[in-house]
TrEMBL record:
Residues 5-65 form the HTH tetR-type domain. This is TetR family transcriptional regulator. The lineage of its organism: Bacteria, Pseudomonadati, Acidobacteriota, Terriglobia, Terriglobales. Keywords: DNA-binding, Transcription, Transcription regulation. It comes from Edaphobacter modestus. Signal peptide: none annotated. Residues 28-47 bind DNA. The keyword DNA-binding applies. GO terms for molecular function: DNA-binding transcription factor activity; transcription cis-regulatory region binding. PROSITE patterns: HTH_TETR_2 (PS50977).
Length: 194
Protein backbone atom coordinates (compact mmCIF):
# COMPACT_ATOMS: atom_id res chain seq x y z
CA UNK A 1 0.00 0.00 0.00
CA UNK A 2 1.33 3.43 -0.96
CA UNK A 3 1.52 5.98 1.84
CA UNK A 4 -0.70 9.00 1.38
CA UNK A 5 1.26 12.15 0.57
CA UNK A 6 1.20 14.98 3.08
CA UNK A 7 -0.04 18.39 1.98
CA UNK A 8 3.56 19.64 2.01
CA UNK A 9 4.65 16.78 -0.27
CA UNK A 10 1.73 17.49 -2.61
CA UNK A 11 2.78 21.13 -2.76
CA UNK A 12 6.38 20.18 -3.58
CA UNK A 13 5.19 17.85 -6.36
CA UNK A 14 2.86 20.53 -7.74
CA UNK A 15 5.61 23.16 -7.65
CA UNK A 16 8.01 20.84 -9.45
CA UNK A 17 5.36 20.02 -12.06
CA UNK A 18 4.79 23.74 -12.70
CA UNK A 19 8.54 24.34 -12.89
CA UNK A 20 9.06 21.50 -15.37
CA UNK A 21 6.09 22.50 -17.50
CA UNK A 22 6.31 26.30 -17.55
CA UNK A 23 9.51 27.47 -15.87
CA UNK A 24 10.37 29.28 -12.67
CA UNK A 25 8.00 32.20 -13.34
CA UNK A 26 5.02 29.83 -13.11
CA UNK A 27 5.88 28.69 -9.60
CA UNK A 28 3.78 30.99 -7.44
CA UNK A 29 2.04 30.34 -4.16
CA UNK A 30 -1.34 30.84 -5.83
CA UNK A 31 -0.60 28.43 -8.70
CA UNK A 32 0.76 25.77 -6.34
CA UNK A 33 -2.32 26.13 -4.14
CA UNK A 34 -4.59 25.77 -7.18
CA UNK A 35 -2.77 22.61 -8.28
CA UNK A 36 -3.18 21.06 -4.83
CA UNK A 37 -6.71 22.32 -4.21
CA UNK A 38 -6.01 24.46 -1.15
CA UNK A 39 -6.01 28.19 -0.48
CA UNK A 40 -2.93 30.24 -1.30
CA UNK A 41 -2.58 31.13 2.37
CA UNK A 42 -2.24 27.46 3.32
CA UNK A 43 0.94 27.22 1.22
CA UNK A 44 2.50 29.73 3.62
CA UNK A 45 2.09 27.24 6.46
CA UNK A 46 4.64 25.04 4.71
CA UNK A 47 6.87 27.58 2.93
CA UNK A 48 7.58 31.07 4.30
CA UNK A 49 7.39 32.68 0.85
CA UNK A 50 7.95 32.02 -2.84
CA UNK A 51 11.73 32.20 -2.40
CA UNK A 52 11.50 29.49 0.26
CA UNK A 53 9.47 27.29 -2.08
CA UNK A 54 11.97 27.80 -4.92
CA UNK A 55 14.88 27.12 -2.56
CA UNK A 56 13.24 23.86 -1.53
CA UNK A 57 12.96 22.84 -5.20
CA UNK A 58 16.59 23.79 -5.88
CA UNK A 59 17.76 21.99 -2.74
CA UNK A 60 15.93 18.86 -3.88
CA UNK A 61 17.66 19.14 -7.27
CA UNK A 62 21.08 19.55 -5.67
CA UNK A 63 20.43 16.57 -3.39
CA UNK A 64 19.49 14.43 -6.39
CA UNK A 65 22.56 15.51 -8.37
CA UNK A 66 24.87 15.03 -5.37
CA UNK A 67 23.42 11.56 -4.82
CA UNK A 68 24.12 10.64 -8.43
CA UNK A 69 27.67 12.01 -8.28
CA UNK A 70 28.55 10.39 -4.95
CA UNK A 71 26.94 7.10 -5.97
CA UNK A 72 28.84 6.87 -9.25
CA UNK A 73 31.11 3.91 -9.78
CA UNK A 74 34.28 5.72 -10.81
CA UNK A 75 37.03 3.65 -12.36
CA UNK A 76 39.94 4.22 -14.68
CA UNK A 77 42.35 7.11 -14.79
CA UNK A 78 41.80 10.67 -13.70
CA UNK A 79 40.36 11.83 -17.02
CA UNK A 80 37.96 8.87 -17.31
CA UNK A 81 36.64 9.55 -13.81
CA UNK A 82 36.25 13.28 -14.49
CA UNK A 83 34.48 12.52 -17.76
CA UNK A 84 32.08 10.18 -15.92
CA UNK A 85 31.26 12.98 -13.45
CA UNK A 86 30.75 15.40 -16.36
CA UNK A 87 28.32 12.95 -18.00
CA UNK A 88 26.33 12.60 -14.77
CA UNK A 89 26.06 16.38 -14.58
CA UNK A 90 25.01 16.54 -18.25
CA UNK A 91 22.41 13.81 -17.74
CA UNK A 92 20.90 15.67 -14.79
CA UNK A 93 20.78 19.00 -16.65
CA UNK A 94 19.32 17.58 -19.86
CA UNK A 95 16.73 15.47 -18.01
CA UNK A 96 15.69 18.47 -15.86
CA UNK A 97 16.33 21.63 -17.92
CA UNK A 98 14.05 23.96 -15.94
CA UNK A 99 15.38 22.64 -12.65
CA UNK A 100 18.93 23.21 -13.94
CA UNK A 101 18.04 26.85 -14.64
CA UNK A 102 16.65 27.27 -11.13
CA UNK A 103 19.65 25.56 -9.52
CA UNK A 104 22.39 27.40 -11.37
CA UNK A 105 21.02 30.54 -13.02
CA UNK A 106 18.37 32.03 -10.76
CA UNK A 107 19.56 34.30 -7.93
CA UNK A 108 18.72 32.52 -4.68
CA UNK A 109 19.19 33.49 -1.07
CA UNK A 110 21.66 31.13 0.58
CA UNK A 111 23.11 29.84 -2.70
CA UNK A 112 26.68 28.63 -2.35
CA UNK A 113 29.31 31.23 -3.19
CA UNK A 114 32.72 30.81 -4.76
CA UNK A 115 35.33 30.63 -3.33
CA UNK A 116 34.46 30.40 0.38
CA UNK A 117 31.72 27.75 0.28
CA UNK A 118 33.62 25.58 -2.20
CA UNK A 119 36.93 25.72 -0.33
CA UNK A 120 35.08 24.82 2.87
CA UNK A 121 33.71 21.69 1.16
CA UNK A 122 30.09 22.90 1.29
CA UNK A 123 29.28 22.00 -2.32
CA UNK A 124 28.29 18.34 -2.45
CA UNK A 125 28.02 18.59 -6.24
CA UNK A 126 31.57 19.98 -6.64
CA UNK A 127 33.34 17.89 -3.99
CA UNK A 128 33.56 14.66 -6.08
CA UNK A 129 35.31 16.52 -8.91
CA UNK A 130 37.69 18.16 -6.42
CA UNK A 131 38.60 14.76 -4.97
CA UNK A 132 39.43 13.32 -8.40
CA UNK A 133 41.49 16.40 -9.27
CA UNK A 134 43.41 16.19 -5.97
CA UNK A 135 44.15 12.51 -6.62
CA UNK A 136 45.31 13.35 -10.16
CA UNK A 137 47.65 16.03 -8.87
CA UNK A 138 49.01 13.77 -6.12
CA UNK A 139 49.66 11.02 -8.70
CA UNK A 140 51.50 13.47 -10.97
CA UNK A 141 48.95 13.14 -13.79
CA UNK A 142 47.82 16.76 -13.46
CA UNK A 143 49.88 19.87 -12.81
CA UNK A 144 49.72 21.24 -9.28
CA UNK A 145 47.25 24.10 -9.24
CA UNK A 146 44.33 25.52 -7.28
CA UNK A 147 41.88 22.61 -7.20
CA UNK A 148 38.85 24.76 -6.40
CA UNK A 149 39.52 27.23 -9.18
CA UNK A 150 39.76 24.32 -11.62
CA UNK A 151 36.52 22.80 -10.29
CA UNK A 152 34.77 26.14 -10.71
CA UNK A 153 36.20 26.71 -14.20
CA UNK A 154 35.21 23.22 -15.35
CA UNK A 155 31.73 23.77 -13.94
CA UNK A 156 31.45 27.18 -15.61
CA UNK A 157 32.51 25.72 -18.96
CA UNK A 158 29.94 22.94 -18.78
CA UNK A 159 27.15 25.11 -17.36
CA UNK A 160 27.76 27.75 -20.03
CA UNK A 161 27.53 25.16 -22.79
CA UNK A 162 24.36 23.70 -21.26
CA UNK A 163 22.85 27.18 -21.03
CA UNK A 164 23.56 27.86 -24.69
CA UNK A 165 22.20 24.47 -25.73
CA UNK A 166 19.00 24.80 -23.67
CA UNK A 167 18.58 28.35 -24.98
CA UNK A 168 18.54 27.06 -28.56
CA UNK A 169 21.87 28.68 -29.46
CA UNK A 170 23.50 25.42 -30.56
CA UNK A 171 21.96 23.82 -33.67
CA UNK A 172 22.78 20.21 -32.90
CA UNK A 173 21.16 17.05 -31.63
CA UNK A 174 21.61 16.02 -28.02
CA UNK A 175 24.16 13.38 -29.11
CA UNK A 176 26.11 16.02 -31.05
CA UNK A 177 25.94 18.35 -28.06
CA UNK A 178 27.30 15.64 -25.76
CA UNK A 179 30.17 15.04 -28.20
CA UNK A 180 30.85 18.79 -28.27
CA UNK A 181 30.97 18.84 -24.45
CA UNK A 182 33.36 15.86 -24.44
CA UNK A 183 35.68 17.60 -26.92
CA UNK A 184 35.56 20.82 -24.87
CA UNK A 185 36.40 18.78 -21.77
CA UNK A 186 39.34 17.16 -23.58
CA UNK A 187 40.66 20.56 -24.66
CA UNK A 188 40.39 21.82 -21.09
CA UNK A 189 42.17 18.71 -19.78
CA UNK A 190 44.97 19.28 -22.28
CA UNK A 191 45.67 22.56 -20.50
CA UNK A 192 45.96 21.06 -17.00
CA UNK A 193 47.77 17.80 -17.77
CA UNK A 194 51.31 17.54 -16.53
Amino acid sequence: MTAKKSTSEKMAVAARRLLDREGVEAVTMRRVAGEVGVTAMSVYRHYPNRAGLLNALADEGFADLAGRLHGAKLSGGTEKRLEKLMNIFLDHALENPRLFELMFLEPREGARQFPQDFRAGRSPTANPTAEVLKEGMAAGVLREDDVWEIVFEMGALLQGLIMLYLGGRMAMSQAEFRDFCRRSFERYMHGIRK
